[in-house]
Amino acid sequence: MIVVAGESLIDLVPQHPEDPLGPLAPRPGGGPYNTAVALGRLGSGAAFCSRVSADGFGEALLGGLRAAGVDTSLVQRGPEPTTLAVATLGPDGSAGYGFYADGTADRLFTLPHQLPPGTTALALGTCSLVLEPGATAYEALLRRESSRGLLTLLDPNIRPALIPDPDAYRARFRGWLPYVSLLKLSEEDARWLGGTPEEWLAAGPAAVVVTRGSSGLTAYTADGAVHAVAAERVEVVDTIGAGDTVNAALLHHVPSLSALATADWPRVLRYAAKAAALTCAREGAQPPTSAQLGLPT
């Protein structure tokens, strides 16, 4: 079982990116939510751990998890509204976001007593590790489960508009690294955070995966090896959810510390690149199923 902990929200995606006052389409989203759905679609046993609103958007978010086969028994519920993220799309399909997150349900997450028996991995990231008071609870979950021997994946997925003190966040990020087994981040995240894969590896992770958009993916491992694959060529509709799909593809192949230790990184990265490309070819965060990938798992 892979537990994904963090926020779910509604992306409001422009239907006509060239028109700032054009219609917006609501789509399920949030980095951890998308990762959980992608894991379910790939056929991995996954559970979602979060606090979800009891409003209509929250019900739709839970419906999306259940449709993907994701266990929702760890989901906390509350009357607070669902977080909204208004997306803006660049000419190349890249997405930027403005957030409406004050007083929303996912910020009030509390630390669960325990994770389900048989849990082998925990994935966290994005807004959930920024917005208090929930961020402190998610951080406590990371530290506790890492100490129990679970594989932990961290995807910081930086949203600068949500980070009031960048230097404090960077220091907090460095404090997480001893509890992280697999660090995945984009080139943009890496530039914003500062540091290098080698420095991050020295702080704790066994592997660091950097996504480079159209230039592909690179994995750096603690033994000094570097593995790179090219991106799959595809007509990009938008990039929403592509990085989250990479998270799921990585965990689909390395769902435990033992699997991480013996990972065939070129094969894992090719699988992740294909999965991300299919997500980019669709509007919004719509990760593929294993059948749609047409690749051996």
Q: Which structural class should the secondary elements be placed in? A: alpha/beta
Main pleated sheet: 8 strands, mixed
Contiguous low-pLDDT stretches (5 residues minimum) are: none
Helix run count:
10
Number of strands: 14
Shape: globular
Quick structural gist:
The protein is an alpha/beta fold. It has helices at 31-42, 56-67, 134-147, 166-176, 187-193, 197-203, 242-253, 257-261, 265-280, 290-293, and strands at 2-5, 9-14, 24-29, 46-49, 51-53, 76-78, 84-89, 95-100, 121-125, 151-155, 182-186, 207-211, 217-221, 226-229. The chain is globular, with a radius of gyration of 17 Å.
Structural commentary:
The protein is of the alpha/beta class. Helices cover 34% and strands 23% of the residues. It contains 10 helices and 14 strands. The protein has helices spanning 31-42, 56-67, 134-147, 166-176, 187-193, 197-203, 242-253, 257-261, 265-280, 290-293, and strands spanning 2-5, 9-14, 24-29, 46-49, 51-53, 76-78, 84-89, 95-100, 121-125, 151-155, 182-186, 207-211, 217-221, 226-229. The strands form 3 sheets. The protein has an 8-stranded mixed sheet, sandwiched between helices. A hairpin with a 5-residue loop joins strand 12 and strand 13 (217-221). Helix 7 packs antiparallel against helix 9.
